[in-house]
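Hello again, I could really use a second opinion on something today. I've been staring at a protein lately and its backbone has me curious. You're getting the sequence in one-letter code plus the fold written as tokens. I'd be grateful if you could look everything over and explain what you see. No rush at all, and the record is pasted right below:
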Amino acid sequence: MDKEQLNTFILLLQNVRKQPSRIFDLGLIVKEPGSELQADEIFNEVRKIVDIEQIIYDETAIDEKVFEKIIKAFEGNKWIFLEIKKDISSPLLNQLKHLANYNSFQLLDYRGKDVFETKMPESSRVIVFAERDFIENKITYPHFYTLFGPVLSLE
């Protein structure tokens, strides 16, 4: 893995904001076909740079549990490394859209509130990791790539 590219990717996420809204971008790391890199290796490299929590969204994941982990990471001012291993369900997709557009997370009937909203802290970011074949063939949301600013392609 090119550590210089990874450092540049992290710096872009830390320092670049959409104008004029000043919204932070979500980042996407794409594992290209033939790459020998594993998600854990990439996560461990990112963890050397920023304080980050790993969340795996796979067949065993329950959306509510994933949301709780994201909220907990935000409460601790941590970054999130979200590894996508199954098609994004509507609740998670809606939250990713909300994070991309407003840098906030909004849930209905959560923690005793009709509408629960938490802002992504200025020191936190979200990095989504997925394999290119998976993105192209399993994710049904046609505008998936538009959720992200910087994209790091790992070959």
Summary: The first helix runs from residue 3 to 15. Residues 3-13+24-154 form a domain with the Rossmann fold fold (CATH 3.40.50.300).
